[in-house]
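Students often ask why we bother predicting the structure of a whole assembly rather than each chain alone. The short answer is interfaces. A chain on its own may look different once its partners are present, and contacts between molecules only exist in the joint model. In this exercise we take two input lines together and write out one structure for the complete complex. Read the inputs first and try to guess which parts will touch.
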Amino acid sequence: MRNVWVIARREYNRFFSTSVSYAVAFAILLIVGLIFALTLLFANGAGLGGSTAPDIKGVTWWFTFLLVLTVPALTMRLISDENRMGTLELLLTAPLRDWELIVGKWLGGFMFILSVLAVTLIYPFILNLLETPGIDQGQMMSAYLGIILVSAAFLALGVGVSSLFNNQIAAFIVTLGLFMVLWFMFGFMSQILPSGAGDIVTYLDMGAHFSNNLNAGIINLSDIVYYLSITALGLFTGTVAVEVRRWN
Amino acid sequence: MIRVENLTKDYGSRRAISNLNFEAEQGEVVGFLGPNGAGKTTTMRILTGYMPPTEGTAIVAGYDVVEESLEVRKRVGYVPETVPLYTDMTAIDYLQFMADLRHIPESKDRAYEALQMVGLENRAESYIGSLSKGMRQRIGLAQALIHQPEVLILDEPTIGLDPAQVVEVRNVIKSLGKQRTVLLSTHILSEAQQICDRVLIINKGKIIAEDTPENLQARLTGSERVSLQVRGEMDELPKLLNKIKGVQHAEVKPDGSVEFQFAPGQDVRPEVARTVIKSGYDLLEMRPVGMSLEEIFLELTREDKPAHKSK
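Now the answer. The structure tokens for the assembled complex follow.
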């Protein structure tokens, strides 16, 4: 476990020395901030969609949507770059298990996203001050739990894909494509397919677990299990990919 | 300590190394000598736990490289051929990171000590990307030494260095070899001659010779060669020398010197000196000519020749 922490801490610090991560944080915070401002301006009085009280759902939904676009940029280099630079050889000859390397890389990225997410806590805080009797705390916590789970799953998939490639751009494109399918395509497919296959696709739809349940304030064990399973799958893929590299 | 038995590695259908057997004891610097693509890096990668062998076993520092890979990796310091480093980190941060991975207490102090060992303590805060090739090589060495490993494996440790740095790194390696087992690969033969206690010559994945540099020379030539510098009319001299009992193949070389051979243990040099002087020549120089490792190497790796036969 200590090795995981050493890798994670280095990776976390590294995010603060690369321009990509600043760009990601800037994009997320700018757009989420605009969404929040619009929520405040338009929800007061007339209200959008018939809701009179502004809530935090817009901010949290947009955050996850932006993760779809930005996490590939954060994870693309995690393993592929080590491989390209040859530094993977250093890590693989250090007394470090393969899974510790993968989990450490994932944890570093996860901590970075959590740091960005922490900044957005200011919005529910402001909203809570403006509104009487305050916002729905349960929904807010459920939505943030949802973002944390979605981030964990996305980052694990990103690390997994990154470990399959030597080229960052290839890793980026494949990760983005994978997220698109998981987040958007399954939603469309479930509407076309007959009910049996449709149900399976609906369960696989990553966006639905968040939008329909967690972001609406509903915490189901099945949603949590779903995201944790995806996380485990991504990390497992990464570990296997590193082991396969050793053999070639 | 390194013990390798029947080590074989295949990449797909290509056999990179085939049935390697060798040992290296503590306090020994063993040179791994061979042309590019001979299997040196593959062997080192197996010994450092980077990749498993297809067949055979390797014991490093008392542990099997496959079964107890982590134990091996704790006890080995390794500098890969390309000296991979994180160019976006400072030297001290990088070494501290590597020390933390090895669970070394007070990693920052130890990282600083390692930098001192390679003479780079004044560059601790420099980004690795801004350092010269020679400095990076030394950072790589510092990384391999930081946990005071029992076994040090260095892949082409002096490649890309300027002459002064080469001497420096060689001296570091020599002094390290006194307490540790050092295995280094090189294709610079004079380097092997200078720093190695023993040389393994590897070609096409097979060890074709193994001995001290000196013995290797003696075994291959089978006789001693001497070069003479004399002043006077040269043409008659080889004939005169060939009459001396024990002198073989006396001849004038293109550079004007005279060379001859004699069987070991049958030293004819005093007699040769007397003959030269008595015949009216001025004797300027008489020195032994060793077969250089280059020549040995070419001899051993020559295609049309079955591997080396010792006499």
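Check your guess against this: The CA atoms of residues 118 and 172 of chain B lie 8 Å apart.
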